[in-house]
Design a protein that fits this description.
Aspartate Aminotransferase, domain 1, homotetramer, about 325 residues, Aspartate Aminotransferase, domain 2, 7-stranded mixed beta sheet, alpha/beta, 2 domains
Chain lengths: ~325, ~325, ~325, ~325
Amino acid sequence: MIFLKNDYSLGAHPKVLQALTDTNMTLTDGYGIDPFCDGAAEMIREMIDCPEAYVQFLTAGTQTNQTALAAFLRPHHSVISPSTGHVCVHETGAIEATGHKINHVPTTDGKLRPEDIDAVMAEHEDEHYVKPAIIYISNSTETGLIYTKAELTALREKCLEYGLLTYIDGARLAMAMTAPENDLKLEDLPKLCDAFYIGGTKCGAMFGEALVIIKKELQEDIRWLVKQRGGMIAKGRLLGVQFQALLKDGFYFELGAHANRLAKKLADGISAKGYEFAIPPQTNMLFPLFTKEKVEELRENVMFEGWQYPSETHAAIRLVTSWGTTEEEVDAFLKLI
Amino acid sequence: MIFLKNDYSLGAHPKVLQALTDTNMTLTDGYGIDPFCDGAAEMIREMIDCPEAYVQFLTAGTQTNQTALAAFLRPHHSVISPSTGHVCVHETGAIEATGHKINHVPTTDGKLRPEDIDAVMAEHEDEHYVKPAIIYISNSTETGLIYTKAELTALREKCLEYGLLTYIDGARLAMAMTAPENDLKLEDLPKLCDAFYIGGTKCGAMFGEALVIIKKELQEDIRWLVKQRGGMIAKGRLLGVQFQALLKDGFYFELGAHANRLAKKLADGISAKGYEFAIPPQTNMLFPLFTKEKVEELRENVMFEGWQYPSETHAAIRLVTSWGTTEEEVDAFLKLI
Amino acid sequence: MIFLKNDYSLGAHPKVLQALTDTNMTLTDGYGIDPFCDGAAEMIREMIDCPEAYVQFLTAGTQTNQTALAAFLRPHHSVISPSTGHVCVHETGAIEATGHKINHVPTTDGKLRPEDIDAVMAEHEDEHYVKPAIIYISNSTETGLIYTKAELTALREKCLEYGLLTYIDGARLAMAMTAPENDLKLEDLPKLCDAFYIGGTKCGAMFGEALVIIKKELQEDIRWLVKQRGGMIAKGRLLGVQFQALLKDGFYFELGAHANRLAKKLADGISAKGYEFAIPPQTNMLFPLFTKEKVEELRENVMFEGWQYPSETHAAIRLVTSWGTTEEEVDAFLKLI
Amino acid sequence: MIFLKNDYSLGAHPKVLQALTDTNMTLTDGYGIDPFCDGAAEMIREMIDCPEAYVQFLTAGTQTNQTALAAFLRPHHSVISPSTGHVCVHETGAIEATGHKINHVPTTDGKLRPEDIDAVMAEHEDEHYVKPAIIYISNSTETGLIYTKAELTALREKCLEYGLLTYIDGARLAMAMTAPENDLKLEDLPKLCDAFYIGGTKCGAMFGEALVIIKKELQEDIRWLVKQRGGMIAKGRLLGVQFQALLKDGFYFELGAHANRLAKKLADGISAKGYEFAIPPQTNMLFPLFTKEKVEELRENVMFEGWQYPSETHAAIRLVTSWGTTEEEVDAFLKLI
């Protein structure tokens, strides 16, 4: 079977596994107070050129979003998110479980735009409504698209105009930052948002995400919030060890670039055979349109997920490449269509 | 000034105020355990012909919705509501504050339909999504419309098909049940929903709502929930006293009918002058369309609220009659247009 | 029956009821934005000599405590309270329902002391523990005692030392401030706490409490919090009307003084007959010790609540006077013992 | 340095690490729906002889307690726990963060007794109080003690008498079940509680706990709750892989027995030198009493945590052995005293 179902089913990249093995019997203090976490945090601060950033490692993406938003918001605050946002649809109400409404913004491509913020703000005029306080965007998005520097800057300016915070879910930040069309630099991030996370789970880690908080006021007592939400693991150094291995010499971004490169090869091959895409290919997630018969036929040899069915005759499926996808898998897929 | 702004700005109907005055120095146990509350609850059970119904009095509408839904749901459960629902937009996230997501259903007229339920359920397939567990509808709706018996029956059947509970916000139940086009009877309610509330605040009470819980399993420990959400007032009998005064000989519904009758007179007069309505008039809330100039002119003599502006030239305003609206006010308004 | 059971079973004082009646048909904006609420708030600011105080009216005590604490705290913050505090035992976990732990401090007399704060703080050293952020005290306490100015000042200094906020539940503030042994002045309150509430329910109002927030940062967006917790009633002016009637010319404190005066007469009479008290009488709640036989005998003619039974032979009962208690009731009780 | 500080600072047992390495590149479905988790769950059901038990793997202890209690309780329910319970003091209010009060029971040795339950229940008589619904105990306790079968049976009977659920935190279940004085069998657990967890983090796993839910009604929709609380990791099989490795041929309990055996050797050696214990040694945590000077001296060569200081002259420190503690470390410690 050709595996193009997701980018989180493999375990850790062998280098990461090796680092875990090498440090397995090392004795450190628990709960993330250790030289590995400190070292990885420092690597991140340098990488984004932001010495005052606070880095907190967590074990999973939903946990990271939930902990961060719960930490940043007061009870009456809401979150503005594109309706395709992970927090809107794939977290079983984790944000609402901490008491906060999400203002879903209908979207066709999964991206939030400044005018969407205007529209939400216009509808939330007084104390009978929740008070939007932060925007949530993903880069790359759940639809595989990226934000340009200009787009992020426009969102940021709109947020500052309304006094909104900006939060970026970077579950697939490695792929976003290495996409062929990307013009964002790592050192732009601290200027364009208040907090973001660097996703490990979908790019080489066994598990783990690095929440990076730029804004000073939002850093206060974060460890209390992490512990309270169940996100502080006893052997906290496991996260530092993994991120050190991943971030050394930009290895993390090489993994993202690999996924993107094979996705591009896949997309080019699909296009060459005359197929269209529901969403233009930009990163490691593709949404090609096939006839329903073709989709059924592909299922015999390929693992993938269905996505949406825009017409009577055609269906978009989701193909995902990862650091572990091989040229052979791509070639094999292209032979099938 | 002609007051057509809302149905909750007057105090209590004089009969209700008299009942409060008559019983003011009566000493009873506190927190709603008293003969007045017991008596009013019994009146409600008889009125809806449902001896097993549990009646809990609360002080306000948002409090009632919040307490009921928090009591009925487990943490991962969500509420399906038309996007115009009071819980969606006018309660500052009170439902989310208890941990529950609301699945907003886009709507043009404020009503929920069985196919809306199908659509929401189709999108919530597994544990990565919240689990819809109840529908929230208002009767009459925030747009002034009512549900026919056939419509409510179809919703109920759809709910039972999916194992969803049915909850009706009756902030304006008096107006719904006495609307000229209504074909629902009070004794239909226990068959068509699991819980509903009878709104006092908008129909003659100084304050207070009566939550009626039909389904046995949902009745358990309700007083604990009420107390925990801050809704149990020391002088609980105030609520029983008011509801006894309101419900005696159907007086509550006479008040609703009065509001509807004057609304109809107003609507007929507006139509006769050639104006249209954004939403067809059915109860005590009207949404006539005027030119923007006319709207500004009206503001000089009439208190009302803006609502939506469907075109370049016309605007729908919201006119609301109540038990206290007079023929003279209606006549005066009609002279202005 | 002689009624000495509580101070919240009567309705409104006739003056308050009259004010409600007089303004019943007045049309104002809803939700507490009206001249009555504005006027009452201004009276409070003048009374406590604190022009920058923010006043928010709410309908009940538990609701007030819950809303205030939820507004003031971040998710990991806890509340330090004497274990007899209303929030600890008589609010069905209303504070925990908003996500906050209460650190119960064992107490024999219901009062918190600076050394209690030291003890709690010593146990909460890092992020594995909740972070105490506020103290909750009642004045007068649930045991009928008051804090002297020196005691409150010492608590305040201890709070400032640790960066803790100070909150005073004033459900019975009228009785506290008019107790014979009281040396606190109203204008001391803004200096000795960050927020407190003036209880109406237990002293002449039909219902209602006035939350007074001194500290500027805590005032932000309070109306959002009130609405979200279900505490914003449509006819918000009812609260302003009542508090204006109560506060005019210090009438509220006259009512408290009346309750205290009759309690003192009762206490003196009980002492004169040779009975002791479990807690020394200071305000309108008394805890005299009787033999169990005497207690049973009293139940035939007096309504009161049991409290605690410190010995094999004697039991402390709770006797409560109110603005409505009469000399005759006190005399009649004294004849029974 | 001799490491006797805790049992969670080492990484995974080499056998567990090997299993993770062997399966690292295996592709399975995510989120715990995979043959490894299924297999490990089946091993647990067999081990406790309870085919109807539901097993849910989670990543950490606080997360497990929080998710389980949130899943089992309605909003007004509270948890009865000894005041030393992990949920009381070391989880930053994780349980309260889900809305539930914990009724702390003062304890000298960390164990709950049937009369403690009676005392709590007697104080929670009506809807003005939270409603205790479950007891939380740890076996072994945070003080290193175990419950005998008779003790657990008495607690269970008391719970059933009041309709309370029984939950056992088994962070150190391996040590409890292999303690020399233990008389509980694994197959007793399903009869003596409604849910418990098998702790991996403190006994050989890299991370991970297995929540075992016996009572059918409590099993419903658990995966929704896990996802909502942030506890569902993408590579869910990591947990199944580890537990399969740990549970095979009782290896997990061998690790616990090893820790206990070295603790006993340590305790015997300490006793032989004439020192006393604050709490009698039963499992892998010891609380020997030393003079303060001795404690300071020990810090130069041993890593351990302070605990409590019962006298002017002596202090109890906490010594913890684990699966990784060596004979040499024990011998070296004994030489130091």
